[in-house]
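Lab notebook page, bench 4
Experiment: in silico fold of construct C2
Operator: M.H.
Input chain length: 276 residues
Purpose: comparison with the prior construct
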Amino acid sequence: MGSQAVIVTVDGQALKGGDPALRMDDLNNVEFIVRYPQKLGSNFVYRCGIFSQLPGGHRQFATLKDSSGKVIAEHLLKEPDDALVYPAASKTTFWGFLILGIEHILIGFDHLLFLFALLIVTREFLSAVKIVTCFTIAHSITLALATFNVMNMPGQIVEPLIAATIVYVGIENIVLRREPKRRWLLTFVFGLIHGFGFAGVLRELGITSGSSGIAVPLFAFNLGVELGQIVVAAILLPFIWRFSRKPDFAVRWVPACSVLVAAAGAYWFIDRVWGG
């Protein structure tokens, strides 16, 4: 690492660590382990100074441990929040992953389109609650299983399958032109697949059962995903229910939107399988 890549100070004094030990996981994530012989002191700052040279949206997960390996502080780094500060840093880990979860669902257009396709044919509040709840429970299960390395599915399989779920729901809407019976069950099954996709975000940061402090990032990230999902549903449903009162909504608009949903899913499927 260059001299400006990482800057570590204790009580304002710069520290010099030993040569970093490198470790790479099965997702080709690189973990740097640097040991410092000095005592911790009262104000520890670890700062990554190269975010401006990295792709937008890049994240790093920094962990501070003592000589026994006990985790003292953790922080999700990003630009401009590029520093782990102890003792304050441990308090911000939860919020960092909560925000990451919200951001992920809001920019996860495939997940949002899947949710939209599920909800566009709903006519009752209870039905929408069942769908959102089943999606939440299902992807929470596989998110936890994948993060704890109990069950894993490679990204090259998960991502095309997520696209396939979008195609299926879009086509089902076109064929039936009404809310299918037991759509909550379909939502649960497909939600399990989407959960593996969410887990990829944490795995890319090296957060698995092999890392310490996994519970807080997992809970906060999943909570962020749920909050973002609820906000999206709360915005969509009033519009859907208002327009559903019009006679031509089910005849024209539902099929038209579902065709676009299926087309987008098909594009993602092709791109993820053969797009390299």
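Observations: Residues 215-243 form the longest helix (29 residues). The longest strand covers residues 71-77.
Next step: discuss at group meeting.
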